[in-house]
Amino acid sequence: MACLCAAAAPAAAQTTGMDLAKARNCMGCHQVDRKRVGPAFTVIAQRFAGSQGARDYLAGVIRGGSRGSWGPVPMPAQTQVSESEAQQLAAWVLSLAQASDDGAPAATAK
């Protein structure tokens, strides 16, 4: 039974993260597993996997924007995203590295 609960937690986080990403228009520039305007979420997750402070850093980038990290197109500040939502989104993005490392399929955008 514990095994089922442990497996359900990442799946629930991915569903909630995807829903929040859609609600906050992240999917307008990003996709889970393919580059769109910005990098794929799985690529971001792999770059920052295991990095200390990655969640806080990514949450800051979501709210404050960035330029030059992924090429010439800057990411505008997403001021409509609250600090709490930015933390949730960052945690979800980082969880995608674990899903792909486990051999389980990452959540895909439809």
From TrEMBL:
* InterPro entries noted in UniProt: Cyt_c-like_dom, Cyt_c-like_dom_sf, Cyt_c_ID
Q: Where does the Cytochrome c domain start and stop, copy by copy?
A: 12-97
PROSITE patterns named in the record = CYTC
Keyword Iron listed? The answer is yes
Asked if the record carries the keyword Secreted, the reply is no
| GO MF term set | electron transfer activity; heme binding; iron ion binding
According to its UniProt record, how is this protein modified after translation? Answer: Binds 1 heme c group covalently per subunit.
Q: Which Pfam families match?
A: Cytochrom_C (PF00034)
Alphabetically list the UniProt keywords.
Electron transport, Heme, Iron, Metal-binding, Transport
Where are the membrane-spanning stretches? Answer: none
What Gene3D superfamilies does this protein map onto?
A: Cytochrome c-like domain
| Residues reported to bind heme c | C26, H30, M75
Identify this protein by name.
C-type cytochrome
Q: Which organism is it from?
A: Allopusillimonas soli
Lineage, broadest ranks: Bacteria, Pseudomonadati, Pseudomonadota, Betaproteobacteria, Burkholderiales
